[in-house]
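ok so for the tutorial part 2 we go from a plain amino acid sequence to predicted structure tokens. step 1 is just haveing the sequence, like this:
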Amino acid sequence: MDFQDNAGRGTRKARGRPRDWDDKTAQNTIKALDRAMEVFEFLSERQGMALSAISAEMGQSPSTVYRVLVTLENRGLVEFDAGEQLWHIGPRAFMIGARFLRRTSLVDRARPVMRALMEATGETANLGVEKEGMVLFLSQVETHANIRAFFPPGTLSAMHASGIGKALLAQMDDARLARRLGDGLEAFTKKSIIDYGALLADLRETRTRGYSYDDEERNIGMRCIAAPVFDINGEAIAGISVSGPTSRLTGDGLERLSRPVMEAARTLTEAIGGSITPQRT
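step 2 — the prediction. this is what the tokens look like for a chain of 281 residues:
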């Protein structure tokens, strides 16, 4: 965008950032803002905390933390529960996060696909991506049924105990798998797969059949079926799934649901200009 300068010397191209953009030294940071963001991020990871607890765990004085919280509260980013004397993330934080999601074409293009998937299966449809070794849920279309799964946008889940997580892990080579899975696998339920060899076998089966299956591995009473979504380079960048209670996702129903899930993944892959590559061996 061009603009006219005050002296009438013609037009100059507007700058989106200063010339010293790459300089991240202390002189180019705002310490008070940096401290405020530390408090904000800390609270977002530990919803519902007293001022004294935040202060103690962060190693900052109560007065400093209180000033930060009040400032953030005035912007709607945090809120205070006077009854319980606890601080929580505020509604404006969600609004800002939602604006990020709206600029992501993957989420925009996934919505009609997910809605169609929910209508076809009668179960909740989910969209997730990998984020620092975890599954980050970006979007969800809930079923109309009374009992349903619920993964609000922003939820993080362990990859080895998630349908979407295993759909993405199944597309990774051995080196990348080792980095993502780390030194140990956490057990969330008695059905969680925590043996590395058993998980690799499960992932090989996932690649062969084209979809992953979470059988109460994260939450007892819930199952999930997922398939990967590929980008223009044929890399798995997301997963789409349906999830619901074991009372509905049983036996032949699982095989029946796998087909619309895989079709939804193919449809979304095409919608973002992606390409499905031959399965990895």
